[in-house]
Amino acid sequence: MTLLTIPNTFEIDSDVFPTLSLTERDRRWGNVREFISSNGLDALVVFGWDRNANDSYLTNEAQHSIVLMTPTEDPLVFLGDVPINRYDGAGARYERWTDNWRSGNPVGGLVDALGEYGLTGATIGVVGLSSRAVGQWSGVIPFSTWSTVLQKLPGVTWVDVADAYETLTLVKSAEEQEMIRKAASLGEAASAAYVAAAGVGVLESVVTAAAIDAIVGGGGWMRAPFILERAGSHRFGWGQPEWFSMGGRPYALQKGDSIASELFAYYGGFESQQQIDVVIGEPDALLRELEEVCLESYHAGIEALKPGIRFAELAAIMDEPLARSKTWNTGPMVQTVSPVIYNSATRIDPGVDPALAHLPKLPGGVGLDGDFVITEGVAFAFEPNALRDGKRVCIGGTVMLTDRGVEELNTIANRLQVVPA
Q: What is the dihedral of CA 88, 92, 97, 101, to 10 degrees?
């Protein structure tokens, strides 16, 4: 039986480009001041480095800065150089959340400011020593930087609060939800461009470029890993194609191939994701079987998603079709998005796949990564994927739980797309 996708979608005007207001700024600053108080802290220091740019929650800019927040003062932003971009005509178009910045050595500036604020013997929370984000579990602060902080501030008691801080940012206000809807609409346009570009004889790089062009041309951006892509008739790996790093001619698509990408469509710092999977010519029986597994997982997750369910429960529901169908996955079936910090299990039981028998060792997996109670205002990447016998299918897009219910913000990526051979 084929499951039909009837998404709860909302039209996004391509000529409307939402921004966050000072009211949203004040809401966030209030959230963080409450966070400081409830965690028994005197202040909070956020190292906004790497992909998720945690400084942006306080500044609305991805400057990869260090930010000091106290219960009474506006955030103080430490930058390596004077942010001259905000003072020319182009920068003047944008409303800034704070002018409270200092340039120069950011760590030196932080040390000086804590002395001025009388916080050299305080208990201070720090974001950046660890992270829930994929690939950032050991944090984003370089060893030498943190060693200098400890040396210069021996009286400070540092408390790693990254997990709680990142989780705080998951629940989106009405304004933030509009930003995610816009990001997902850019991902929808990228999915359409991807499908339109695919065909016999087309280089995989051309298809990839079409998606990127749609995102950036529509007023969005991307962050690392920018885009994942793999093409061919036999594929069970996942990630960036080898030509990204090794060179060589990108593969030219042939009848019977499929080409798939994980798109990371950002708008205003808000991430959406789309799992676009395109087949050149009519899919074979195995691809359709794998698609059915993914559709079952997707729709089971949509049906289960509601306020009060735990993330672990949602993950278990979406994982279940894999075991029953004797398939496995190379990525999570579901993860939070904006930020990506909670993930369902990956590479569940790859031993079921005879196509892996020639490998010297079966690939390892990662179990369910964290749990929380889901509330309205949380967005997810629904990305069910199923593999067997050298074939892979992955579908899905951005899904958000709001006071309107479950919003499925993408349509094209929610099932295999077929182009003529």
A: 10
